[in-house]
Amino acid sequence: MPKLTKHIVDTAEARPAEYFVWDSDIPGFGLRVLPSGRKGYVVQYRAGRRSRRISRGPSTVLTCEQARTRAITIVAAARNGADPAAERDAGRKAITVKELAERFDKEHIVIRVKASTGEEYRRNPRRFILPALGQLTVTGSPGRTWQSSTTTRACRIPGPGPRSSTSGNPMSSRLFR
């Protein structure tokens, strides 16, 4: 197990099955070589009883030292009890602002507000919030900071009427409760 260097990465050749070249300095840091010849840096660690592997990037984009620095942060987090792969997976499973707005429509607007108010509540996200923020993920409780900075910016887009430029804020406060 030699220390991974540019020379070792460049000379690693493809085989019929994928294989790993592990680094001697950092436990769990290595180079994954695929049968197609593609090479990528990986970090493997244990979280509890489960073995986890995180890809750090292809060897054509990252230098060995850049990948090593990123691997050190992951190994340190794993040793401190964190699970970086679980955090990554949680971020992928988080709902988007668009999905939250649809859920808000079903669970709040339809049940609790009058028809005219409901139309206004649907119009504001459609015109102001969703075009600007619809693809962002919502993780945890956004609180006042997220709400005031992000949704206010999205809701202050000038509209044709005097009320339309600021009327998104009361709706967004209910949306993110």
How would you describe this structure to a colleague?
- The chain is of the alpha+beta class and 177 residues long.
- Helix content is 50%, strand content 18%.
- It has seven helices and six strands.
- The chain has helices at residues 6-11, 64-79, 84-93, 97-112, 115-133, 143-155, 168-175; strands at residues 19-22, 29-33, 39-47, 50-58, 95-96, 137-138.
- The strands form two sheets. A four-stranded antiparallel beta sheet has the order 1-2-3-4, covered by helices on one side. It has a two-stranded antiparallel ribbon with strand order 5-6.
- Strand 1 (19-22) and strand 2 (29-33) form a beta hairpin.
- Helix 4 packs antiparallel against helix 5 (115-133) and helix 6 (143-155) runs antiparallel to helix 7 (168-175).
- The longest helix is centred in the C-terminal third of the chain and has 19 residues, at 115-133.
- The radius of gyration is 24 Å and the shape is elongated.
- The N and C termini lie far apart (53 Å).
